[in-house]
């Protein structure tokens, strides 16, 4: 999002997982899930540190704050939060005009996607977040919000937590029309659905692999993720309609 609003050239360091756009890959790294190199950050002396609290050790963030650094948490929880985050980053970096323009366009495109899909037929969806253990998504999760835009009916919507662990047997019982998998190789090869002909998604070949970066990372690219997911649900609807006619 910093690159999108025109602040990319002000980034002096980043985390190991930063890989978009291409220019991000050459920015010096100062850590990742294993921890942050505080000494390196002290040496670089940034004016602003954009953090993700969900992916960083609280003690590390507290330590950076105690050292006098300015920290801001970027962690959109809803689709609407992406636009608000863009505007806030624009204010903090002096790129308000570009940020406000992108935020406005994002809101318009998101509204249009909601309108385009609102009246479409329900499609029973199983989102395979991971295979071993078999995990999915439920109400209030980030992915559920995307499924809602596309008018999908998540078979595990009512689970007790946002990212529940489930069994193959429970998927069989709920008989999804579509199975969506993140494109990670370990996820795709982790479970072979082909023997389970009781599942409509298997019978009709409605198993799709989707780019996890577009779906799991809150950003402007979320719009591409939504459109991709909506397109595969449309493909499933189209196939089912043809079968009924035939």
TrEMBL record:
Coiled coil regions in record: none
Domain Fe/B12 periplasmic-binding: 1-237
Lineage per the UniProt record: Bacteria, Pseudomonadati, Pseudomonadota, Gammaproteobacteria, Alteromonadales
Name of the protein described by the UniProt record: Cobalamin-binding protein
PANTHER family: MOLYBDATE-BINDING PROTEIN MOLA, VITAMIN B12-BINDING PROTEIN
CDD domains on file: BtuF (cd01144)
Entry keywords, A to Z: Signal
Organism field: Shewanella surugensis
Alphabetical list of InterPro entries matching this protein: ABC_Transporter_SBP (IPR050902), ABC_transptr_periplasmic_BD (IPR002491), Vit_B12_bind_prot (IPR054828)
SUPFAM superfamilies in alphabetical order: Helical backbone' metal receptor
């Amino acid at each position: 999002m910093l690159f999108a609003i025109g602040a990319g050239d002000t980034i002096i360091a980043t985390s190991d997982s930063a890989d978009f756009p291409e220019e991000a890959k050459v920015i010096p790294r100062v850590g990742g899930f294993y921890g942050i190199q505080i000494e390196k950050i002290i040496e670089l002396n940034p004016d602003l540190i954009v953090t993700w609290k969900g992916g960083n050790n609280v003690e590390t963030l507290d330590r950076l704050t105690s050292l006098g650094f300015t920290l801001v948490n970027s962690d959109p929880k809803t689709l609407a939060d992406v636009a608000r985050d863009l505007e806030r980053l624009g204010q903090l970096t002096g790129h308000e005009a570009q940020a406000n323009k992108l935020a406005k366009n994002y809101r318009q495109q998101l509204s249009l996607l909601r309108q385009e899909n609102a009246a479409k037929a329900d499609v029973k969806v199983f989102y395979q977040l991971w295979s071993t253990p078999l995990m999915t998504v439920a109400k209030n999760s980030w992915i559920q919000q995307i499924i809602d835009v596309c008018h999908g009916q998540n078979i595990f919507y009512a689970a007790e937590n946002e990212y529940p662990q489930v069994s193959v047997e429970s998927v069989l019982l709920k008989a999804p029309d579509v199975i969506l998998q993140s494109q990670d190789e370990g996820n795709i090869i982790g479970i072979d659905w082909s023997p389970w002909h009781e599942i409509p998604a298997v019978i009709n070949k409605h198993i799709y692999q989707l780019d996890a970066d577009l779906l799991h990372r809150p950003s402007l690219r979320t719009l591409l993720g939504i459109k991709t997911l909506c397109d595969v649900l449309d493909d499933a609807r189209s196939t089912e309609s043809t079968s009924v006619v035939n």
